Amino acid sequence: MKFKEDARVWGVLLAVGVMMLGLAVLGASGVAAQGQAGSGPPEWDPWEINPLDGPVDLGLTDPALVGAMDVHSHVDPSTPWNNGITRAIDFIEYAHLGKLRGVRGFVIKEHHSAAAAGYAYMIRKHIEPTLEVFGRMPLNFQVGGINVAAVDHFTHVRGGWGRIVEMPTIDAEWRYAGGPRPGREPRAPETAERRAVSRPWMALMPPGSPMAVSISQNGELRPEVKFLLEYVSRTRTADSGGRISISTGHSSGDEDVLLAREANRLGLLIVSPHGTQDMSPEQLQEYVRLGGFLELRQGGATAEWVRMVGAENAVVSSDCGFRHELLPTDCMAIAARTLREGGVSERELDLMFKQNPAKLVDIWPWRGSTTGSSSSAADRP
Ligand SMILES: [Zn+2]
């Protein structure tokens, strides 16, 4: 009996061995045939990694990355506008990558539409249901500028994962017109050459159209901006009942402070992605005193900034996903290492990578709390 079983096992092993040998011979003959042909380029392999064609996953990890919420990523499908920069990965690839590196989730910032809310829905339903993915929508010309209808759509796309509404970015007046910056060199206005690659749609607009989306005038937010913020403060997203946060977009330092004042008055959370570049130290101080979060994006995440504004008011994000940068998870890991080397504590990293960004998308702000995720604000303890 014992022998029979052994014989059967050996028989199976032998059969497998013969099969593998056969495959090996077939493979070898295939290689030989290719070698003999020797003409024409090799067939394109979509799985081949080509460092000249975009970033390679460095596979970096860090304790700060595990459970992190990246509130600022740029992934496909998108358009190459904004200086002609294309994306390195799409939203499904970031979902796989993020899951692999243990992030809690990420926010897709799509400059031109409300699509990110839909991408988040698709990831949660079909790719990685454990990842908490959200959308972020700037109010550029493609969505009609300062437009409540666009915000209503974005926040009511199935799932309710559109959670950050951003002031204009590419079409921002500050980016177009430039102007003085307190304590720094003035911001240069947009050149026609730059506009041609950055905002080609401007050449298609009817004559006499405004050249940018303006949010302020004479030191005050425009009435339509105030109206929109008021709407945002009292609306909740469809299905998941989430609160919506505001981002200052590519606004001036003055406008960042005006927005923070209004957000503070309305009980809205606000984050500034470019405050490190456009706010003076005094403006930054006031912005933070009003409860604003300052985004420290990869490369710009330094211990000096953390000391200046305090980890309670800072959020570390990747702002990656572009072809000319590292992949978002690597960007985040490098930011964590840079900050730690600069003397930033683990508690502070926890605040900036996990807790503060979780607040911005209205999920419970402590690490590992997935059961209470994406709850309505009313359920929060
Ligand atoms: Zn960005």
Structural class: alpha/beta
Question: What's the CATH H-level superfamily name?
Answer: Metal-dependent hydrolases
Termini, distance in Å? 66 Å
Nearest-angstrom radius of gyration?
25 Å
- Listing every helix as H and every strand as E from the N terminus to the C terminus, the arrangement reads HEHEHEHEHEEHEEHEHEHHEHEHH
CATH topology name, in short, is TIM Barrel
Bound molecules: zinc ion
Task: Assess the beta-strand content as a share of residues.
Answer: 5-15%
Mean pLDDT across all residues, rounded? 86
- Give the helix level as a range of percent: 40-55%
**What is the β-strand count?**
12
Instruction: Give the overall shape, derived from the CA principal axes.
Output: globular
Number of helices: 13
Strand order of the largest sheet: 1-2-3-4-9-10-11-12
Which key features would you list for this structure?
two-stranded antiparallel ribbon, eight-stranded parallel beta sheet, globular, 381 residues, disordered N terminus, 13% strand, alpha/beta, disordered C terminus, 41% helix, binds zinc ion, 13 helices
Task: Please give a structural write-up.
The protein is an alpha/beta fold. It has a single domain (67-366), classed as Metal-dependent hydrolases (TIM Barrel, Alpha-Beta Barrel), CATH 3.20.20. The protein has 13 helices and 12 strands. The chain has helices at 2-37, 91-101, 115-127, 148-156, 173-177, 192-198, 223-234, 253-266, 275-278, 281-289, 303-309, 328-341, 346-360; strands at residues 69-73, 105-109, 132-138, 162-166, 179-181, 184-187, 216-217, 220-221, 245-247, 270-272, 293-297, 314-317. The strands form 3 sheets. It has an 8-stranded parallel beta sheet. Helix 2 crosses helix 3 (115-127) and helix 8 (253-266) packs parallel to helix 10 (281-289). Mean pLDDT is 86; it is low at 1-5, 11-38 and 367-381. Bound molecules: zinc ion (ZN).
